[in-house]
Write a structure and sequence with these properties.
The protein has 222 residues and is α+β, with helices and mostly antiparallel strands. It has one domain: Roll (Mannose-Binding Protein A, Chain A). The protein has 5 helices and 8 strands, in the order H-H-E-H-E-E-E-H-E-H-E-E-E. The strands form 2 sheets. It has a 5-stranded mixed β-sheet with strand order 2-8-1-3-4. This is DUF1554 domain-containing protein. It comes from Leptospira haakeii.
């Protein structure tokens, strides 16, 4: 019975995009089948932050039904299979871009199954960024996002220094990709509170989108 379960899990890992024609190092769990299988059981608990591979213009609502939330959810779901994340079993996703519906510092109001008592970790490395979701925006990070393996490229946040939705600096609620509007961006090079808001960028510029993935909890975010 155990062998049958392991065989099923191994097939699931392979079908999740771990084997492809891309060139990967042996340490890259995202395309190392054995490491991916082991990470289902051995990866440290946490909420993992990951970055989109492509950069996007300011009209982040383009993939939804005219609003930011469904579009950002689609972006994060599309990017998850290609992201280097230490925990292969981390599949539920949410964006770290604030919207009129939910600010990034209050994600559990829309994604009630996010665990609130686990550390925030860099996806590729598992390095702890913050002790929990609540302190991610309100306390200085333990290390920068770059040090946690998330690259050095700025990213859209549409949020103020504490992760609140910054109305008026959001590329017209994610609908604009011209220089007529601006949207706030964050920096992976900073660890002090305020890394989420370093400047307003013209919406015709392209930046990454950061997301989280997590193993959902039942009955809310505890």
């Amino acid at each position: 019975m155990k062998l049958r379960i392991l065989a099923i899990l191994f097939f699931c890992v392979l079908s999740n995009g771990c084997i492809s024609d891309k060139i990967c190092s042996d340490q890259d769990r995202s395309c190392n089948p054995v490491a991916s299988l082991l990470s289902l059981f051995s990866a440290p608990e946490g909420i993992y932050v990951y970055s989109s591979i492509p950069s996007y213009g300011g009209n982040l609502a383009i993939l939804g039904v005219g609003t930011l939330d469904p579009s950002l959810s689609t972006i994060c779901k599309q990017e998850r299979p290609f992201a280097a994340i230490l925990d292969a079993g981390c599949q539920s996703v949410a964006p770290l871009v604030s919207t009129p519906g939910v600010s990034a510092n209050n994600l559990t109001s829309l994604y009630a199954d996010i665990p609130t008592n686990l550390p925030m970790r860099g996806g590729p490395t598992g390095t702890i960024l913050a002790d929990d979701l609540a302190s991610f925006f309100t306390v200085d990070l333990h290390v920068t996002l770059e040090a946690a393996g998330l690259g050095s490229t700025d990213f859209w946040t549409y949020g103020d220094a504490n992760g609140n939705y910054a109305s008026g600096v959001t590329c017209n609620d994610g609908s604009d990709n011209t220089n007529a509007f601006t949207g706030y961006i964050g920096s992976p090079l900073l660890s002090a509170v305020g890394w989420n808001n370093v400047m307003a960028a013209n919406c015709d510029q392209a930046y990454k989108v950061f997301c989280i993935c997590y193993r959902p909890v039942s009955g809310g975010g505890g």
